[in-house]
């Protein structure tokens, strides 16, 4: 009987420790989300300012990094970083062009970053990311 009680206390203590570790892990995750949340908004704002979604849409099919860079008038290296960041968040997707080269294509989410269009939310995103809205 005493042995069972000791075992139950040991199990309870282990569960408390596990719960505490789980809470600490969630706190770390949420802290990083708060820290990096601004970065995500900044990259989305940058994509709208550059007109990435508009350029891909006007192409009508997947577009290579080189063609996108030329269309937007910006260097391919930083553009690649922006596109990769947004692809990891499933805003854009990678798809082969008609020539079989790797390219970038729209998703329903990326179409919301277009300046014009039925589902555009670009104006709202730009407003929400403006210095006035981000000020404390």
Automatic annotation (TrEMBL):
Record organism: Castanea mollissima
Record region (Disordered): 1-24
O-methyltransferase dimerisation domain location: 32-115
InterPro entries (UniProt xref): COMT-like (IPR016461), COMT_dimerisation (IPR012967), WH-like_DNA-bd_sf (IPR036388), WH_DNA-bd_sf (IPR036390)
Record-level Gene Ontology MF annotations: O-methyltransferase activity; protein dimerization activity
Gene3D superfamilies for this protein: Winged helix-like DNA-binding domain superfamily/Winged helix DNA-binding domain
Biased composition (Basic and acidic residues): 1-21
Organism placement in taxonomy: Eukaryota, Viridiplantae, Streptophyta, Embryophyta, Tracheophyta
Protein name (Swiss-Prot/TrEMBL): O-methyltransferase dimerisation domain-containing protein
Keywords: Methyltransferase, S-adenosyl-L-methionine, Transferase
Family according to the record: Belongs to the class I-like SAM-binding methyltransferase superfamily. Cation-independent O-methyltransferase family.
Membrane-crossing residue ranges in chain numbering: none
């Amino acid at each position: 009987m005493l042995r069972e009680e000791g075992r139950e206390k040991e199990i309870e203590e282990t569960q408390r420790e596990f719960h505490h570790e789980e809470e600490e892990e969630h706190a770390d995750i949420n802290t990083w989300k708060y820290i990096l949340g601004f970065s995500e908004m900044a990259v989305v704002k940058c994509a709208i300012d550059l007109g990435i979604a508009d350029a891909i849409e006007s192409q009508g099919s997947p577009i290579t990094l080189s063609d996108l860079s030329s269309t937007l008038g910006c260097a391919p290296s930083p553009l690649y970083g922006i596109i990769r960041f947004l692809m990891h968040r499933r805003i854009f997707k990678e798809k082969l062009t008609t020539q079989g080269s790797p390219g970038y294509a729209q998703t329903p989410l990326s179409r919301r970053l277009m300046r014009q269009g039925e589902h555009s939310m670009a104006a709202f995103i730009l407003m929400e990311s403006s210095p006035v809205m981000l000020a404390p």
